[in-house]
Amino acid sequence: MQETPEELAELQTLLDSSLARSTAHLRSIITDESTLSAEQLTEVLTGMCTLALSTVTAGGEPRISGVDGHFLHGKWHFGTARGAAKARHLATRPVASVAHLRGEELGVFTHGTVEILNPLDAEPAADWPELLAYFKSFYGEDFFDWDKDVVYYRLNPHWITVYAADAAPPRPCTGRGHAVGILRPEPPEPRA
Q1: Which of 100, 171, 179, 169 is nearest to 146 (CA)?
Q2: Is 178 exposed, middle or buried (0-12, 13-18, 19+ CB in 10 A)?
Q3: Considering the entire predicted model, what is its pTM?
Q4: Which of 29, 122, 137, 188 has a CA-to-CA distance to 105 between 20 and 30 Å?
Q5: Are 74 and 127 in contact (CB under 8 A)?
Q6: What are phi and psi of 151, to 5 degrees?
Q7: Per residue in 128-172, pLDDT tens?
């Protein structure tokens, strides 16, 4: 858990207000007995959590793809290759939705606006050095060129809800990561 008391309070307020603004149908599914507090959520969303990321094309069509998500300071952070379609979508339409699902055990649903943390042609976010140190410790110092190969985002949420099937919080994320969508190809096997 990397959240300060202020960040936990902000997240709890957003969780409460998001559910209060939700439809009656959603509120019939997500109740006080089937959700998590901000503190519980940050204890569960540690390490890498696979996210389904939804972006929008220039033609207004939705696109969904997978990314490695890291829930830090009460917000999702994720990256991708700078040339990926999702990076182009987010550069011109910086709105996104993400879902982290674990079967019927847990669902975390978030809508918001993204900010680019490490733009190529502008100053990085003030907390980028701290975040970069975290990502390098997770993925490896030299797995790729951190300045040129990848772009990282923070999803600033305006709505987030959590469904948890049991009263006890689910287990933490256990993902090792997929190199934020930059898979290095294995050398081809020699032909026999």
Answers
A1: 179
A2: middle
A3: 0.88
A4: 137
A5: no
A6: -120, 135
A7: 999 999 999 999 988 888 889 999 999 999 999 999 987 666 777
